[in-house]
């Protein structure tokens, strides 16, 4: 049976944007009425008894986290298009991705440990400085070295994966805020991160406009501006001072609490599988959609995916403190299974664009639910002073797998895209098994 290639450019129905937006609003604003009927009510974002000191701390942190998310999102707006503009070939693009993954594996893996030793706030500041450097580098160089930018941005992504969360948790405990109020910050982090990604896409496209040759470096100007604001905020005493930990003492604690706890090993594996599947998705989602010559507006699908992730994050408070409270491990298992099945369908069954976009939205809705859930479990099982090292080391298997598949699949083309997605699906299904174990 022949495949019919669509002749028109496919666009998502505008009603989808409206549906996601309204669903997020209803999920957020209806939650207080539902949680009031729960016999197991916990602290929520809408409690009137929340101390003003905590609200100030939370708002300042979410502001900084949103700035950091916007900086991360700015560099991914044009992606391959920007590289092609600078004359980079496909083989060179894959090579630069491999170099970036190698930097994340061989350097980024140990940055979390270093952040625990010298202070999480300093690493948040390093994150901003690296973004500032890349922005200035692209502004002052007519043909900037993609290799340098790839390494720096890979390191910023590694730092972003642990530094802000770890800094927030340490400061939350240091300032004496209630432990149960931290869950609200976790899902709000995912919500604001996704919203910032969408905002960075809109802002970057607005800055570039129709004059690509003149304005291709405009997003770099925005990144410089955001980085400078973040650096000012961090250097004005917002983060406080964290005592440096002795390495010998840290290593002893790490061996006892991290390497010696099976629950943390399983939690780390779930985090690694999630990280790998997300990386695989963002590498392969566009080639999957445009297969067989199909034409579509990727820029209109991108906010749908992140909007679905925002919606998934708003479901988190419903599940942990709503009318029918569930154990975090329970809905983690279901979410991982759904994600694994979605990737399995995409890998082995040809689908129309509308079906693929729907599956991708379901995939990201599950991500929005899983991210705050894993953060909550880390708070339950991982000591705060070891949190950064645990997160960065847990990503090492994922970064190694990403590097392997980039070399074999992208550079040498020995592995097809379907096989990579199938491997990611198997990882997600194995993560479902590991997520069901920690509490037992």
TrEMBL record:
Membrane-spanning parts: 15-34, 93-114, 121-140, 146-164, 185-204, 216-234, 264-285, 300-319, 331-348, 354-374, 386-409, 415-435
The UniProt record lists the keyword Nucleus: no
Biological classification of the source: Eukaryota, Viridiplantae, Streptophyta, Embryophyta, Tracheophyta
Keyword Membrane: yes
Cross-referenced Gene3D superfamilies: MFS general substrate transporter like domains
Keywords, comma-separated and alphabetical: Membrane, Transmembrane, Transmembrane helix
GO CC terms: membrane
InterPro entries associated with the record: MFS_trans_sf, MOT2/MFSD5
Protein's name according to its UniProt entry: Molybdate-anion transporter
Species the sequence originates in: Castanea mollissima (Chinese chestnut)
GO MF entries: molybdate ion transmembrane transporter activity
